Amino acid sequence: MQTCGVCGRYASSRDARDLVDAFEVEEPPDEVLPPSWNVAPTDPVYAVLERSGRRALRVLRWGLVPSWSKDARGAARMINARSETLTSKPAFRAAYARRRCLVPADGYYEWQREGSAKQPWFLTSRDGGPLAMAGLYEVWSPSEGERLWTCTVVTTDAADELGHIHDRTPLLVPRASWGRWLDPAVEDPGSDLLVPATPGVLDAWPVSPAVGNVRSNGPELVAPLRSAPDEGPTLF
C-alpha cells in the first residue's frame, strides 16, 4: 500500500449533499460515504461524472482498472495518471477521450523530503471550497453481470510556489472548465487544462506524520503542525 507521494492521500469529509450542491449534480449517489481525512489507494471515493447528458455523483474505487484488464490486482499502482502521457499510455488513453471525472477533495497531502525523513504537508483551497481534482474513470467487467467502477487522479508539474514540497501535484480543474472536462462528447478538452493550478489558489502547512498510517483518521490529521514561536505554520 502506498503511504506517500504524488497525491497518495487526500481528505474528503464533506457531506454528499454539499457536494451535490457544489458541483451542480443532477443525480446524487446511491451510496453515502463516511467522512475521511485519510483517503488511501483502493478506498471508495466520490467522483463527479457525466453520462447521458446528466451530471452524477458516484462512488468509485480509487485505483484505475482499465476495461481490458484481466484482473484488478494492479489498481493500487494506478491511483495517479501523468498529464503528459494521457493520450499515449494504453491504460489511460481511452478513459481520457471518453471517461473524465472530477474527484472532490477538502485537500491533499504531499511529502517533502528532509534529508532521510519525509514531512507531510496538507494543501487545500484558499477560499475554503472543495478542490476539483481532475480524474479518469473506467468500468471493468470481470464477469457477466459484474461491474467495477474505478478512477485515477491526473497529476501535473507543481507550480513554482509548491514545487519545493513535491515536484508533482494533482491537476485542479477550475469551475469554469468543469463542463468541458466532464463532457464525454469532447475527446480532447484542451492542453490549456493540463497545467498547474493558478498561483495563489492553495494554502499549505505541515501536518502530523500520523497521516502516513492508513489506520489514522480524523480532523486532527489536517491541523497545522505545532511550530516554534517565531515560525508560522503556513507556507504562503
TrEMBL record:
The keyword Transmembrane does not apply. InterPro entries: SRAP, SRAP-like. It comes from the Bacteria. Pfam families: SRAP. GO terms for biological process: protein-DNA covalent cross-linking repair; proteolysis. Coiled coil: none annotated. Keywords: Covalent protein-DNA linkage, DNA damage, DNA-binding, Hydrolase, Lyase, Protease. Its EC number is 3.4.-.-. One of its GO terms (molecular function) is single-stranded DNA binding. The keyword DNA damage applies. Gene3D superfamilies: SOS response associated peptidase-like. Belongs to the SOS response-associated peptidase family. This is Abasic site processing protein.
